[in-house]
Amino acid sequence: MLKKWNRQVDLIGGPIMKNLFIFMLPILVSYLFQQLYNAADTAIVGHFLGEQSLAAVGANVAIFDLMVMFAQALGNGLCIVVSRAYGAGDESRLRKSVAGSLVIGAGTIAVMTILSLLGLGPEWECGVLRLPL
Q1: What DSSP designation does 6 have?
Q2: What's this model's pTM, rounded to 2 decimal places?
Q3: Terminal-residue alpha carbon distance, the chain
Q4: pLDDT digits (tens, 9 = 90+) for 7-61
Q5: C-alpha angle 82/66/119, rounded to 5°?
Q6: Cα torsion through 45, 50, 55, 61, rounded to 10
Q7: DSSP letter, residue 13
Q8: DSSP at 2
Q9: Which residues contact 133 (CB under 8 A, 6 or more apart)?
């Protein structure tokens, strides 16, 4: 069964619909997990924190989605750089591309975390989130 998962997929040759479907599957699964997260978030907040908190979650979904889409777009761009180095067979450039991608990813995560914490407002005091119960 392990051999089945290690199969090479040639996305530039063969039937286009099959290749598009294979390429689309990981993206589809990631969007399904994103929707499950949103549904769970809505259910938990609506059940435990009430209508006002649920409205606040709904008002901020666009901001959250913007941050997620930015991270996905950055990851896709970094994948292009790594893929080009891999396709060219340049192992030195590949190593530098992967290392650079990790540094850029970690830096972006740090900046987005700091900006998110600064945007939380007065409810965030001394590193403890105070929930209105």
Answers
A1: T
A2: 0.59
A3: 50
A4: 676 767 777 888 788 888 888 998 899 889 888 888 888 888 888 888 888 888 7
A5: 115
A6: 0
A7: S
A8: H
A9: 49
